[in-house]
Write a structure and sequence with these properties.
six-stranded antiparallel beta barrel, 32 strands, 26 helices, alpha+beta, single chain
């Protein structure tokens, strides 16, 4: 067993890691001879804004960048206020120690944190770097036996990325502010990610659907078994499938090759074939197949698979993975590598033999080549920690729901990677019926191999269905078959699917854009910046994203070009390997490459460099043109063209414009759904909102029906009348805007209304419509109206009868009330996901978390996928509103005044403000000045 180094040489020793959780786990292995403390992420960073720039640098021309571009791109680092206390603590501990171990993560960011600690603490004791890819006793003690020096190439690479992202963000983002809207941001990876989502939506907008027909036949064999087969050809022409149509025109790509059937032609063909001679087996083909297991997880593969199988966002996956790593259950979770150590290979093979038997164990270990170029994030794939992988069931009570499910996924993928292939047979039967040919395809699994443990998820649900086993009957060529039925089938081609988090991550990785440590943050960022929103699991771009992409594509196309961005990634990787000089590259990127030096792979259009390119565009860009998108030109019944309709992206939101007519467009309106017909409808609604329903006979003021951010409402009076504020009233629950006329609007505006005086208390009885629904009130007594009662027509006697009943206990009633709908099982708690009607309106619950339904979604419309998204968003915000309010109250009481001490500064170092849990990713996280 490995022993700790001698106490005489290491007593006491200070070990610094990133997070408190990691410090606690490592402290258990090192004992009292070591002090293990956390830096809590990065301790220094470039200044976030003018307030953070030290006074002595504020007059410098480069100060706003936080990088001295005139002095070899020397960065200016500041220590955030919230880190000062921790640094003071580390310095105090270091004074009593004889040595310092920097044990931050082994990737680029971890190396940079160690370097910043070294620069800031300025230790006068021996300093060594500890690296390990799992937090186990064996790994920690082995790291102590084999310390190394700080890797300056990795530090330079991290610093180059940080500076490059700062220059990109701080120079490009203001262009978006001036021409589109304030508080927008551009980034090296985020802008390309937004473009990917926008490009997919453009494909959907230009997509033209096509309708075609086929036929499904049911055939019987001599042994009385039956099977289905699809029509594949008639005569010498094939029946087309969706891929055979041009997505831009909806027409067949090769019309001479295919037979395009419509409904009548298909029905005529059915009639003809039914009277034809008996069907027969034209051919039978049977082929063996083999599938191999998938490699162990890299970071991006884990994010993609957790999204498909567990419905986790990338952020949720990384949060659970970090907790598993810091508590010693898995290896380091930021990695491009698919390698497994010899220790891990032995552990996996031992488990395969013990759990599944020799038949599932290949003769030799399986090795997987890493596909990602310059995989530097770590040296091993994500796997269970240690040399005896803990069985998932043994950890069920020790881990949270998310941690357990993610560990189970990692365990299965790791074990499956060291199992035998899956073997089976594929069979294809072609049936002849007159001049028509039908085909059936089947698959049988003869030996499951690794499939006993793990089946990879699919982005395409149809592909998953296609992989299920389908057994076809044994038939021989020439065998006569009975034709049991022929069923016409209509098909409509579908537009390309929108990106999910998993498919966007995969596309970024395939294009060589970004690094696995950044994908979760990039997706979070484009959602938070409102470039993208989610519907179910789909990522949908906003019109603001369209405007940003249009501006960049037309004026600075290199900065949003896929190849250019991937080349930048390669250059930064070359810096990490010591093959490229950091300063030379940054100078060529920022100030230009006038000599066309071949070692910098910039396109000719980027020769002036970032600064000159941005400066030259400020006066050239027409903001109105950049922010305008033609929706279409409507035509009347005679085919005459009307005025074109444009979507404009304005400073305060998007709106439609047709001549003098305008209408606001909700932010979460999918661009591909904004057709000419939809736009005309929205413009008509906007006009109706400007025209009154009529005049109030009591006040002489106009009464309007309007639509706001919270839905439809009625208004009496004009908003521009400052002397007399208009009166508003919401529509009742279940009331449609088409139900509202002047009479209904006046009735709504009459609330609250006095029905009479109580004969018991002498107080007025009032009916009103409150935020929780309609109710009656008399003094301190209130009663909610039943679902069959309306505040517009309730009588005085009915109100008295309601007030005489015992008060309804909303909390008790909610617990006992029947669910409006049951959507299915929660993947987290395994409880039913129910739709309930609460005091704040309908909401969904999984037994642990409650989430209100948006006003645009009714209990009848909400899907299981939408419910999971709502619950996840609620969890991300801190649970239910009641819990969150309690937490906020507690925090408020404990808050003290922020320190006003002057920031300590230095040149040469890096960091950013981090949450309590060490989230140290800095690459391209919207480095835009605010």
């Amino acid at each position: 067993m490995t022993k700790l180094p001698s106490a005489s040489s290491l007593t006491p020793a200070l070990v610094i890691v990133e997070s408190p959780a990691k410090a606690k786990t490592i402290g258990k292995y090192l004992g009292s001879d070591f002090i293990v403390e956390a830096s809590v992420g990065h301790i220094r960073d470039l200044p976030k804004g003018a307030r953070e720039i030290p006074e002595e640098y504020k007059r410098e021309s480069w100060a706003r960048l936080g990088v001295n571009v005139d002095a070899d791109f020397e960065p200016l680092y500041v220590i955030p206020d919230e880190k000062s206390k921790q640094i003071k603590k580390l310095k105090s501990l270091l004074r009593d120690c004889k040595s310092l171990y920097l044990a931050t993560d082994e990737d680029r960011e971890g190396e940079a944190i160690s370097w910043h600690l070294l620069e800031t603490l300025n230790p006068r004791v021996p300093v060594q770097r500890l690296v390990f890819h799992e937090i186990t006793r064996t790994a920690i003690l082995d790291a102590l036996q084999h310390p190394r020096e700080l890797d300056r190439d990795l530090v330079n690479a991290q610093e180059a990325r940080r500076i490059l992202d700062r220059l990109y963000g701080y120079e490009t983002s203001p262009l978006l502010w001036y021409k589109i809207r304030n508080h927008l941001s551009a980034g090296r990876v985020q802008s390309v990610a937004v473009r990917l989502v926008v490009d997919r939506e453009r494909e959907r907008i230009t997509f033209k659907s096509a309708t075609y027909w086929s036929m499904l036949g049911l055939f019987g064999t001599e042994s009385k078994s039956q099977f289905q087969a699809s029509l594949i050809s008639v005569g010498k022409k094939s029946i087309p499938s969706g891929k055979d149509f041009d997505p831009k025109t909806g027409a067949l790509i090769n019309p001479t090759k295919y037979l395009l059937l419509d409904q009548s032609a298909t029905e005529a063909l059915v009639t003809r074939l039914r009277s034809a001679t008996p069907a027969r087996v034209d051919s039978v083909e049977e082929k063996p197949y083999t599938t191999r297991p998938y490699p162990p997880f890299t970071t991006s593969a884990l994010q993609q698979e957790a999204n498909r199988k567990l419905n986790f966002t990338a952020r949720r996956t990384m949060s659970a993975a970090q907790s598993l790593y810091e508590n010693g259950y898995i290896t380091y979770m930021r990695t491009d590598s698919t390698n497994l150590s010899q220790e891990a290979l032995n552990a996996a093979r031992r488990l395969v033999k013990e759990q599944y038997g020799d038949a599932y164990l290949p003769e030799k270990p399986r090795y997987y080549a890493t596909k990602v170029k310059n995989a530097q994030e770590a040296h091993e794939a994500i796997r269970p920690a240690g040399n005896a992988f803990a069985l998932p069931e043994t950890l069920r009570g020790k881990l949270s729901s998310d941690e357990f499910r993610l560990y189970d996924l990692i365990w299965k993928r790791t074990i499956a990677s060291q199992m035998t292939d899956s073997r089976g047979k594929r069979k294809t039967i072609v049936v002849a019926l007159d001049d028509a040919r039908f085909q059936a395809s089947g698959k049988t699994i003869e030996f499951p191999g690794y499939l006993r443990v793990y089946v990879e998820g699919k982005d395409d649900a149809n592909a998953e269905l296609a992989d299920q086993e389908l057994i076809l009957p044994d038939v021989h060529e020439g065998e006569t078959l009975s034709c049991e039925s022929l069923t016409p089938q209509e098909h409509t081609t579908a537009p390309p699917p929108r990106y999910s988090e998993a498919s966007l991550t995969k596309t970024l990785e395939d294009k060589g854009i970004g690094r696995p440590s950044t994908y979760a943050s990039i997706i979070d960022l484009i959602l938070n910046r409102h470039y993208v929103f989610k519907r179910g699991g789909a990522l949908i771009p906003t019109w603001t994203a369209f405007a940003v992409c249009q501006l960049m594509e037309r004026n600075i196309p290199e900065l949003i070009d896929y190849s250019f961005t991937a080349d930048m990634e390669n250059e930064l990787d070359a810096i990490s390997r010591g093959e490229r000089d950091r300063v030379e590259y940054l100078r060529a990127f920022y100030f230009g490459n006038p000599d066309h030096d071949a070692k910098f792979p910039f396109p000719a259009s980027f020769t002036p460099g970032l600064k000159a390119l941005i400066d030259s565009k400020r006066g050239e860009i027409d903001a109105r043109e950049i922010c305008s998108f033609l929706i279409g030109t409507p035509t009347d019944a005679d085919g005459n063209a009307g005025e074109p309709i444009y979507l404009r992206v304005g400073r305060y939101g998007s709106y439609l414009e047709q001549g003098e007519r305008q209408a606001s467009v909700p932010e979460e309106t999918p661009p591909d759904e904004l057709t000419v017909d939809k736009a005309l409808e929205m413009l008509d609604v906007a006009i109706r909102a400007e025209e009154p329903l009529g005049i109030c006979p009591d006040t002489g003021k106009p009464v309007y029906l309007k639509h706001g951010r919270f839905g439809w409402y009625v208004q009496r009076g004009d908003a521009g009348d400052k002397s007399d504020k208009p009166q508003n009233a919401s529509l009742l629950k279940g009331m449609q805007n088409g139900d509202v006329n002047l009479e209904v609007a006046l009735a709504l505006l009459s609330l609250p209304k006095t029905l009479g005086v109580s004969p018991v208390s002498g107080e007025p009885v009032v009916v009103s419509n409150g935020r929780f629904g309609p109710y009656v009130k008399c003094g301190e007594e209130t009663r909610s109206l039943g679902s069959d009662q309306s505040p517009l027509d309730i009588s005085f006697d009915q109100a008295l009868e309601l007030l005489a009943k015992p008060k309804h206990n909303a909390r008790t009633a909610t617990k006992k009330s029947e669910p409006l709908r049951i959507l299915g099982k929660s993947p987290d708690s395994n409880e039913e996901i129910r739709v309930l009607d609460g005091r704040y309106g309908p909401y969904v619950t999984d037994g642990e978390t409650n989430a209100s339904l948006p006003k645009t979604v009714t209990p009848e419309q909400v899907t299981l996928e939408q419910a999971l998204e709502l619950l996840e968003a609620r969890r991300a915000k801190g649970g239910t509103p009641r819990r969150r309010a309690s937490a906020k109250s507690t925090t408020k009481k404990a808050t003290t005044k922020k320190s006003s001490a002057k920031k300590s500064t230095t040149k040469k170092s890096a960091t950013k403000k981090t949450p309590k849990k060490s989230s140290k990713v800095q690459d391209d996280i919207s480095d835009a000045p605010f």
